[in-house]
Amino acid sequence: MVCGIVLSGGMARRFQVAGEPWRDKALHEIDGKPMISHSIEKLKRLSSRVIVAAGSLERAELYRRVLGVEAVPDDEMMKGPLSGLYSSLKLCPHDTFIALPNDMPFLDLAYLEELLSLADRYDAVSPLFPNGLVETTVMAGRVPTALWVLSLLRGMNRGRVADLHRGVPRLYLSNPAGRVAPQSFLNVNSRESLREKVEYPEGPVEGDVRIERDFGEREAREGRAPATLWSTLFRGEYLQEFSLYASSGVYMFAGYVLQDSPHRYERELGKIVVRSLKPSL
Question: Considering the entire predicted model, what is its pTM?
């Protein structure tokens, strides 16, 4: 059995128009229905329970009323999409989950089924583009592992979804280039986005990437999990984790690791690396 989660807690600042009242991007109509409904409908075909991570209590109540869905507010001790993911996973009675953002209405259902099938063997599964960018908010994974990873992160003032990927033992990154139409990954950040043509970014990554590390929750808590988020945060051994991602072509995660460096210039380099990747798709 599977839980489906829609991440819909952001403020959608790029979607707003100066001088107009704030508009909930998730409820903007695309093809005659709210944009978030496209994600909800796909998840209903993939899972037995769909939960919308709504951000605030007010928006959770709005989504329940307007969309007729189960919706929860974010966890107050976390920030960013991780806070909504944690709140939703705590309600999930199943071992497997799949999470989607509210603003990718054209995601390919067959590809999502493929990601979900990999969650039987891997703790987190997400798309990886040829330039080393990971679409972290499209993710399948194991509920028990995700919950203990997020419980460790809770209260640490960290909000990147990539922290979940960096913190799990078994990670699978699936390269959709050449198999899935790039328009599937159109991200509706602004009202002009729907007119954009999407192409896969050029880069050296040709296949999928599998990263398997042998550790559990206890080793993570003690920082005894080499080349992971935990050894980087708790022991400052960030170069092992950086090398793992850099040598695998997962350049976005390598950039994030550098941002956890104690050295200022390495942190700045990490920001440059991530900025160079994100505008590409």
Answer: 0.92
